[in-house]
Protein 1
Amino acid sequence: MSHTPVDRADLQTPHRDLHSELGGLRGEHPGRARNPVVKVADLAWLEFEKPDLDRAEVFARDFGFAVAARTERELWLRGTFAGDPCMVIRQGPASRFLGPAFRAAERADLDRLARATGSDVRDADAPGGGQAVTLLDPSGFPVRVVHGAEQLPALPGQQPLILNTGTGGRTNATQRPPREPSRIQRLGHVVLETRVFMRALDWYLDTLGMIVSDFLFLDGQRGRGPTMAFIRCDQGSRPVDHHTLALHLGPGTGYVHSAYQVTDLDAIAAGGEYLAERGYRRSWGIGRHIQGSQLFDYWRDPDRFMLEHFADGDLFSRDLEPGWAPMSASGLAQWGPPVTRDFLGASPSPAKLREVLTALRGDNELDPARLLGLMKAMSS
């Protein structure tokens, strides 16, 4: 039996169909570095500073975290999966995001990073010990790469509900999801805003070996390159989260949100009801994203940091090339309520105006055309 050869350029994959009409054009950003310094294995944890650790712990438990460790000046939070903690909150004078920590695949990666960047390998200030290299990305965020910490054991988790799908499921049994916190399984990703998007993107690809899953570009400005990237770790043929880090161009430099995996849609919904009953504020949800496909629900903590419950996200191996799609508010979800101004960070304020003016006057990638394009995208 003979087979007609298939031109790879004509091959339509599910990823290509959903995320991009045409894929990348000739000469556009390839979405990966040819020879990165290292390839990080995953996002380890996120670091914050807050003045009130007691209040932070109350929200954390309501949101679904477990406490891995607590001292007078530090609160370490975890999920039910074995592995690294999800977050450390250090006591400080103001509420702020300090930066992400990534997990190195092997100890030798720390030495390679240290040599390439002129940094030192030091003991990691984390439960379970280990070592770390601390770097500074082009946006000014401290980025730690860690290895060797003792891994946390698994905790009991929420079991997924048995669903009737029309072809089978439950018999003689009712469905009553408990009204309780969504039990966090693990940290999924962090989203950051930056005025130096391309410089930051290339740094994470060149230094940490991450690869792009999807690019977003502004309407009429594709020739100027993307303004958002969903970036995953490169573990070869092993599937990983569609994005571990997302970067987008904007007038600010800072944390946008972080996302934490839970069991299923009922865990998201019942946990959301639990949060609402305790007076917390939903930012946007429940819905399903396009890039990444996650079921999502976004909440604000008492310090106004945005956190996401998610489930059923895409997993990609390194074989898939980046998708390309126009940036728009309506393109953020396949279904769900209309995106809110709170989620988009589009509520006008004197602080936001100062941020925009500072960005337009500075040496960065935001100019009037880019700003107008972003404003149009967030209202389309």
Protein 2
Amino acid sequence: MNGHDLVTSPPRQSRPPVTDANHFVLTFENNRHASELFGQFDQNLKLLEERLHVTARPRGNSVAISGDVVATNQARRALDFLYERVQRGGSVEPSDVEGAIRMAQAADDQLTLPTLERKAKLSMAQISTRKKTIVARTPTQDAYIRAMERAELVFGVGPAGTGKTYLAVAHAAQLLERGAVDKIILSRPAVEAGERLGFLPGDMKEKVDPYLRPLYDALYDMIPGDRVERAITAGVIEIAPLAFMRGRTLSNAAIILDEAQNTTSMQMKMFLTRLGENGRMIVTGDPSQIDLPRGVKSGLVEALDILEGVEGISTVRFKDVDVVRHPLVGRIVRAYDAQYAPAASESE
């Protein structure tokens, strides 16, 4: 453990009494690392206080934690995890603190077998390439990363800002670096927000590139830019509209379909049946953001119903609490969900 108890009440060797209050001091061995952990002007500790309703008072390379027993233990787990991150050379941003807090809170609801004891330390799933390591920031992201490691076909569905597409592309890049697949294929339906390609200027590449930009951005985050360009030129990485998948069998490849809520039933069936030997497929989308013409059923919504329980398929559902962008984004998602949920239930 990186943070050590210096003050406890009662002493460590005796059983703690039943109480709602707790107080201890965590001390970290390295002053510089502790400073990075606490953040500029102790901003990370202030965020910890705000989210967990504890007090966190720093002094040098130590921090005194006081508050509810459950909350203070969550603070301890979060700080220990983040300190290890700093020791490994990583940085600690407010979003990392938010993620560690979420995971610490979730750990209280998870029991480890066979002892059924509470987890003492956090163990978050991560994706690593030579350029970057991404650690899960929410329990759902953790489940999503583990599902992608395990299942041949994964559906990641939920609101914007939850990391569905980014983590999928990162996982594909990791598989390519490991040699587990020979190529990456990234695709999106080319109809969004009422716009159709025929009305856009330029050749086909110029028409579709704006729709595929988020996929490019994620790739460049995980793989050096020059390698991405060479891989695209060599066909090792392919980024194309969904229509280009028809008639193909995609073997030894990591295949991602993004914005899948905008596929029709026939498009979704066509895509899913492209999966070839040693293929791994990830389908992402937000069923609340369907841009198809009125009366056209979303292929994603239909597939989630039809394929529920099918062996080899894993579905991970993100919620507004999993939004890892600006905290305001989560509040916006909740407000829209509250507005449109009654109308959706009436139409069912």
Protein 3
Amino acid sequence: MNNNRKLAAVVVGLGLVTLSACGSSSGSGGSGGSKSVTLVSHDSWAVSKSVLADFEKQSGYKVHVLKDGDAGQAVNKAILTKDNPQGDVFFGVDNTLLSRALDNGLFQSYEAKGSDMILPEYRVDQAKHRVTPIDSGDICVNYDKAYFSKHGLTPPQSFDDLVKPQYKNLLVTENAATSSPGLGFLLGTAAKYGDAGWQSYWKKLKANGVKVVDGWEQAYNQEFSGSAGGKKAKGDRPLVVSYASSPPAEVIYADPKPKTAPTGTSYGTCFRQIEYAGLLSNAKNTKGGKALLDFLVTKEFQDDMPLNMFVYPVREAAQVPPEFQKFGQPAKNPEKMAPGKIAENRDQWVKSWTSLVLQ
């Protein structure tokens, strides 16, 4: 979900990344004699080598990872190839796209071992167990502290603030039709202003100079003036749609590390995102896929996840790094939307948004 997942939260990347092996140790065993299991994901997937090696040693499976672009792109491709899937497990479908995956029969039922340790507020599809919650995060506007200090401006703190004249031509966001954070930001405005009000809000946002790019990578690491990548690219937008967990990444990966994050979060602009994984229908190695899903909810993986993918764990008592506690607290009152409402309206909202904002 976040900061390129090396700097990222549901990051965006275009194009198919070739199949790559992760970790070490091959082991033996597996369904049908297979010694490998394949995880299909968006480009933000990451795990510590030592943690993955532990799974491979204990399970006997070699893990291969196929990164397939932004979450929206990866989900759509997985649906198109569901009869002959590219792998065994899919990771990274979020609550904005979950109904599309379930309605198209992307996953088969499996209740992962240890799923009883997942916090109740993240559990869905309890009757069929087609997906397992893995992580959560908040899609929010981030701001460049140095820019606002230099210009004597108070950073925006709410959706309402973003349409004010003093923030004209300052915001860059992602395309809601191609990017997971872009779609989440759109849903956040729909949750805030309702069915009748979100289009009027976007008209104001467009009139106030919002810039739309294809995905998170371009928005955050090229257009946003507050990120390390944006500074190198001479980005000139001091506001960007990213994640509440993006500021700690700017501290963790800086050399030397600053005492405080150079970017901040506008907590009145947040939408809660939850990511899931599932056993793909027609997976060639179902036994290995089940073992991999079990691994994703272990405490070892959940503790490892924040500093690799810049998301929050969903397992009870999982550890959150101190940098997150200091610089990347989750939103206290993020906008939320019931999965059924997302399913009912998402495609039409995206179509209307595209006509309104991009044309």
